[in-house]
Design brief:
The structure is a single chain. With 329 residues, this protein is of the alpha+beta class. It folds into three domains: 81 residues; 84 residues, General secretion pathway protein M, EpsM (Gyrase A, domain 2); 143 residues, Protein Transport Mog1p, Chain A (3-Layer(aba) Sandwich), CATH 3.40.1000. The protein contains six helices and 15 strands. The strands form three sheets. The chain has a seven-stranded antiparallel sheet, sandwiched between helices. Strands 1, 2, 3, 4 and 5 form a five-stranded antiparallel sheet that branches. Keywords: Membrane, Transmembrane, Transmembrane helix. This is Fimbrial assembly protein PilN. It comes from Ruminiclostridium sufflavum DSM 19573. InterPro entries: Extracell_DNA_Util/SecSys_Comp, PilN.
């Protein structure tokens, strides 16, 4: 009978080795998976915690910003409510607060800010407006005072001492405005109601064109020739200062014995403007001109008051009021 157990020993030994190697490989792979997992899971968990932390910090920052906005809004709301209450009380005494604020705003140069405004009085004739302001420098303060005087809306202007702000942060000062001059000018609306200006009631509109308007005083026995007010509209790409300089250069070459008295920057219709006073001769008569130049939307506006020099000095305040009344809608 044949022996059926004919499998060689070498075969059995080799099979056992393969089994050991396979088991060892599986063990190594398993150990590798364990090691990788032991490193990866904390890293992934840490990354998730970091993202969650960043998200929570963003939410906290957003909440803080919202709280700050709410506090700022409440502060502004309280200030507006106080102004409304103050305005209502003044309106009951027939004091036009809006006109007062507009007059101050129009006179304010760019580098000047009003921090506090208080108004009191029983009527516009004795109204008292106290302002606390900060300006970039003394030049801005001087411009503010000059604009207020040119406007002639307030009867008196009292400027208190000027002090340096904290850490040289501008100049702080107080100013008191008292009394309001009555506006007795006749209002003229022209160029399809895009402009408005006041003029003396008995003056006459002598010319109305698309680019020119002339208003002339009645003939006077005391004046060599009647005074006049002229509005001219020109196309331009220049800014107000350059436009005014080009205008004066042209006048210097066209007018006889032209001489510049002064020229300074101001504000009109919330726009940069230039006010210029100059003299010249026409038909052997010495005239003085007060002129306002400003630019808006590619259009240059020129407002010129002209009268003989003797009459000009007597009516300078009303002339300033006329020029300041010019408004572009």
């Amino acid at each position: 009978m044949k022996d059926l157990n004919l499998i060689p020993a070498s075969y059995v030994f080799e099979k056992k080795n393969r089994y050991k190697k396979a088991s060892l490989s599986i063990l190594v792979i398993f150990a590798g998976v364990v090691v990788v997992s032991a490193y990866a899971f904390p890293t992934i968990y840490e990354y998730g915690l970091k993202n969650e932390k960043d998200m929570l910090l963003q939410q906290v920052a957003g909440t803080s910003a919202y709280v700050a906005q709410v506090n700022e809004f409440n502060t502004l709301k309280q200030a507006v409510e106080a102004r409304e209450k103050e305005g209502t009380a003044l309106a009951q005494r027939q004091i036009n607060v809006l006109k007062i604020i507009n007059a101050i705003e129009y006179a304010s140069p760019e580098r000047l800010f009003i921090q506090k405004l208080d108004a009191s009085g029983e009527s516009e004739a004795d109204v008292k407006v106290s302002l606390s302001c900060v300006a970039e420098n003394e030049e801005a303060i001087a411009s503010f005072v000059r604009n207020l005087k040119d406007d002639a809306y307030f009867k008196t202007i009292g400027l208190a001492a000027i002090a340096k702000g904290k850490e040289n942060n501008g100049e702080t000062f107080d100013i008191v405005l008292t009394g309001v001059n009555k506006d007795e000018l006749t209002k003229y609306y022209g160029w399809d109601n895009t402009i408005r200006i006041g003029y003396i009631p008995n003056w006459i509109i002598t010319e109305e064109k698309d680019n020119r308007i002339s208003i002339t005083a009645s003939a006077s026995l005391t004046a060599a020739k009647p005074a006049s007010l002229e509005l001219v509209l020109e196309s331009t790409q220049l800014q107000a200062k350059a436009f005014a300089e080009a205008r004066q250069s042209k006048l210097k070459s066209s007018l006889e014995n032209y001489s510049l008295v002064y020229s300074n920057m101001t504000r009109n219709s919330r726009l940069d403007a230039v006010k210029t006073v100059y003299r010249a001769e026409e038909e052997n008569i010495r005239y003085t001109y007060s002129e306002l130049c400003t630019v808006k939307g590619g259009k240059g506006y020129i407002v010129t008051y002209k009268s003989d020099s003797a009459s000009f000095s007597n009516t300078e305040q009303i002339i300033d009021r006329i020029l300041k009344s010019f408004n572009i809608n």
